Amino acid sequence: MDTVQLGTTGIHVSRLCFGTGTHGWNGRSDQTDVGLQEFADLLIYGFEQGITFWDSADQYGSHPHIAQALQTIDRSQVVITSKTCASTAKEAEQDIDRYLREMKTDYIDIVLMHCLTSSDWPTAQAGVMEVLEKKKEQGIIRAHGVSCHDFGAFQQAAITNWVDVVLARINYAGKNMDGPPEKIIPIIEQMDANDIGVYGMKVVACGNLGHDAQNAIHFVLDLPAIDAITIGMKNQQEIDDNIGYIEAHDTALQPV
User: Fold this and answer.
1) Predicted confidence (pLDDT) per residue in 164-187, tens digit
2) Which of 4, 68, 128, 149 is deepest in the core (most CB within 10 A)?
3) Into which CATH architecture does domain 3-249 fall?
4) What does the domain layout of the chain look like in residue ranges?
């Protein structure tokens, strides 16, 4: 699978990211419900097919599954995102320390402030931002950024210099997004122009576009400002199908 750089972070990832948080919150997700070893085996299977980018979060409860998979996979060969809901510097410090223990790693590639819902987050979350910036300087994380669940918060992310990476909700139908595609896409393009790495989530709208998954995936991959996409998968067939959709898209772009 092709790899791309996320913005100007220097972090190279597979175009398809293995999402671990379908319907995820309060410490569980559809992926973690599969079981500890069972889901770790799926992460390993995906890695063997070229998926070297994993998206996790505290709220998904997927850190132990990543730790289990890392018993088999060389840590340096995979890029891992996690997310924090911390509202204070102290909480952020505690979260990062705990995440490292839970995933049994000494660094996390990307840490995002999770599910921002207000445009004043650069002020309200200033303490958290300072902690993540310090962790980046120390090499404990490689990049920081945000995921948003609000149009104003999303707009703010495009113009905040602190942001390295954004996880953006995007699909052709406007489902489970911060706004309709015609409003979201120009902001994603602004992020790209400002050297922010952007990877897309809700590409198949939490399964609502599953009947048209190939077209849904191709729609997002056709956006030049999107570096990669994350999709939650629960079995080998879903992994194979999504890799096939991406390969079909990228093959069609190659000159004859």
Assistant:
1) 999 999 999 999 999 999 999 999
2) 128
3) Alpha-Beta Barrel (3.20)
4) 3-249
